[in-house]
Amino acid sequence: CLCGETEIKLLNxxxxxxxxxxxxxxxxxxxxxxxxxxxCMPTLIDGVVCNGKKEIYNLTLDDGTVIRCTDNHKWFLSDxxxxxxxxxxxxxxxxxxxxxxxxxxxEEISSTICSKFIPTHRIVAENVLREDxxxxxxNNKTKQVIVIHHKSFNKLNNDPSQLEYxxxxxxQMYHNSLNKERxxxxxxxxxxxxxxxxxxxxx
Length: 203
What we know:
It contains 5 helices and 13 strands. The protein has helices spanning 18-23, 120-128, 130-138, 168-184, 186-202, and strands spanning 7-9, 15-17, 29-34, 40-45, 56-60, 66-70, 74-76, 82-84, 97-101, 107-111, 118-119, 146-150, 163-167.
């Protein structure tokens, strides 16, 4: 078990403590995990359970982070083995997930043993929405590129419910229609013309 102040990052980009998740009675939410090969994967969490008061260990990582947990909490090591807290030794390396935002504004994730960062939305879509992609591919008579659309228009929200596979041309047409609606708005068009004008003056 982990203590209530432990922070959990969800696929939608939000971060909650375990206490907050428990108090809000949140159920069926998506987070990050690792498979048996140490590869980053999405996981659906049923909910948070309180197991009462327990003896607590302070686990200090090499970057100074302290994780408070019970003696029987299991940890996935970078060598592929599992150890309970009470059996950990100085120098043991825990399997970890790392995240960053790339130049295009999309989140990418990697793990201790992965050699490169991969966009989170691709990992999530491939593992949760793969059937949708296969159906599009099956009917793809014009051999269009299949892309992943963020329904919320938030590039950091990678909850499966907010991702959708689309043909590239449909995706472009959809965004073009939205851009037209924006430009038809007088306030927006004035704002953008002003920005373009100022940019031209600088160049």
